[in-house]
Amino acid sequence: MFPLMSLSNEEIRRYSRHLILPEVGMDGQEKLKASRVLLIGSGGLGSPLAYYLAAAGVGTLGMVDFDVVDFSNLQRQILHFTKDVGRPKIVSAQEKVEQINPEVTFIPYETHFTAENAIEIAQDYDLLIDGTDNFPTRYLVNDVCVLLKKPNVYGSIFRFEGRVSVFDAQKGPCYRCHFPEPPPPGMVPSCAEGGVLGVLPGVIGLLQGVEALKLLLGKGKPLIGKMILYDALEARFREVKVPKDPDCPICGKNPTITKLIDYQQFCGIENPDSDELAVGAPLRKMTKDEITAEDLKEQIAKNPMTMVLDVRNPSEYAICRIEGSKFIPLTELAERYDELVKEKPIVVYCHHGVRSLRAAQLLRKNGFADVKSLFGGINAWSEKVDPNIPRY
Ligand SMILES: [Zn+2]
After folding, report:
1. Are residues 71 and 185 in the same domain?
2. Beta-carbon neighbours within 5 Å of ion ligand 1
3. 350 is a catalytic site residue
4. Closest by alpha carbon to 176, among 151, 224, 143?
């Protein structure tokens, strides 16, 4: 008697190159069909992951994203086409996944992944894949995985470098073992601040995809306890060991974190405005050391002595600038104080207002009394004051 097969003849044709691999075969393909994978984010990492995991026959793909497609996403977030600009990413993602493989069940979650909904969303999945680009969500994904005893396939990208690992606290370290403390807010620039090579998330996302398929199939050696570092400019892969920390607050011997916490607060981000949680957006309220774009416009009109100081990189300055501003890249600021006047009010700006906050701090420490940072950077200036300035 023939065993009962859960693949249709069409599926057998579709997956034939898998079926002839001894490591996959009918058993493996049926395992994939029964698998449930949750992708956090449909951006640079989530895009190649969604395409390839759907094409490979992962039966159920869940995806969490609350963002809307922006022109600046198209350079790397290949799930989204030019026609999708302005549409919810999750809707755009679902269309593409269903076209590439209608056998896949796609479950959209058009919401932020938060401590309130994460357990409920994640509990029915076999593994989570972290495609986020902010620290609060990264710690949240980690903690959800540790508490639910699920693997977390981790990836991160910045400029020309990427990292991949599998965090499975049952068998090895978790993300907190490797990164116990988040960096102070604003100290690590996001891709929106620092840039990223468009193909890089393709490389890193697909390394995550390979690890996810291996875990689902139970084949090969998973990247547990190790992290791959990829340097695109040097064309070099390195592997570093990631040991388990016996004192890890969530996966160590005496865990102090036994349920989800407030991740915004943990990462030092106060009073997050839920509408501002989009990828790359400032995750915080304005402080007294900052000024809005509208107020800066008024201040320039009232007090022409105001110096507007641009601390971005030369490549960004070449794209656009606020008229009349002085340009000193942040990296050169400490050597060029003599070009600034201590008595004049100074307003510093950058792309999104993170580096300028650091620059303003530096200036205040060095005797400049009246220094503010433009909240939201030149991006906010373009949105609120001068729409002729291109947003990038
Ligand atoms: Zn840990």
Report:
1. yes
2. 174, 176-177, 248, 251
3. yes
4. 143
